[in-house]
Prior knowledge:
By secondary structure, the chain is of the alpha/beta class. It has one domain (30-198): Rossmann fold (3-Layer(aba) Sandwich).
Amino acid sequence: MKPLFYYILAIFAFTWVNLAPASANTNACEGKKLVVFGDSLVAGYGLEPGAAFPEQLAKEFIAQGMKLEVINAGVSGDTTTSGLARLDWSIGEGTDAVILELGANDALRGISPEVTQQNLDAMIVKFKEKKIEVLLAGMMAPPNMGPAYGAAFNAIYAQLAKKHSVELYPFFLDGVVADATLNQADGIHPTKEGIAVIVDKILPSTSVLLEKVCQ
Length: 215
């Protein structure tokens, strides 16, 4: 993967209102399966066992009394193209919900935003065909790609969320990207503490997702 160093330089003024989590029916969540489908940012690159995003999210659900299975389907280096190619065999039977976190490697490699959007669109369609609820985790293009590329890429996630009426978390690295203390020595991937920040910030969106599943 090309270094995500440029993310450290990106969008210092990005803000996201962290609303109080909605309340899913915790009893109805028992036996439900949530798959986190993404790249190294969720796969646990450079982290000790149990510190990756899906594992920390699962611990938070347990603390809230939710008996919910959380599956880590992250693959380091994945682009949206490779993610689409493995989707059918990566998402097991009985999956109720997915957090879709892909696109960072597309932006770092300068892949056309049109290709990225087409791939994400196809993935969301596949999930909906399988009756799987989706939380789309957005990404932002590194500034070295230029303003035109950034504008086209950064608009993808909101457009897709609106088109497919799925829950959107605008920027997966919100609260972490510009803080060296929350990233590993490579300046690329969040530390265990950085992942904890991401989990805390994304919880309201996951609660909305689970309200659709835990009924």
